[in-house]
Amino acid sequence: MILKHPFVTEKATMMLEGESKLQFIVQRDATKQDIKRELESAFEQEVANVRTMMTMKGEKKAIVTFADAKAAEEILSRLGIM
Fold first, then answer.
1. Whole-angstrom Cα distance, residue 56 to residue 16?
2. Using one digit for the tens of pLDDT, what is the confidence trace for 65-81?
3. C-alpha to C-alpha distance for 71 and 50, rounded to whole angstroms
4. What is the distance between the alpha carbons of residues 32 and 9, in angstroms, rounded to a whole number?
5. Domain map (residue ranges) of the chain
6. Which residues pair with 63 in a beta bridge?
7. What pLDDT does 81 receive?
8. 12-34 per-position pLDDT tens digit
9. What highest taxon heads this organism's lineage (predicted)?
């Protein structure tokens, strides 16, 4: 499993509302293509873009943009976060 868990902070919530982007903590060795494939198969939504970065704690964070603007909110509600 490449995805560890969703990364939900105040800033991540503002990105969700303003830009329809989700953030996930992922395995350190995961590539952008791996993350995209995993998200599309798990949630059956088309991923438009994946950006990755390392957090100050040494974890890898993926910022994901979906093709459908409402997909991010739907996924978080499916996960029971919103």
1. 22
2. 999 888 988 998 888 88
3. 15
4. 22
5. 3-79
6. 23, 51
7. 82
8. 999 998 899 999 999 999 999 99
9. Archaea
β-pairing verdict for 47-54 and 21-26: unpaired
Residues in the chain: 82
Instruction: Give phi and psi for 64, each to the nearest 5.
Output: -115, 130
pLDDT reported for residue 62: 97
Instruction: Spell out the SS3 assignment of the chain.
Output: CCEEEECCCHHHHHHHHHHCEEEEEECCCCCHHHHHHHHHHHHCCCEEEEEEEECCCCCEEEEEEECCCCHHHHHHHHHCCC
**Count of alpha carbons within 13 angstroms of residue 26, beta-carbon side:** 27
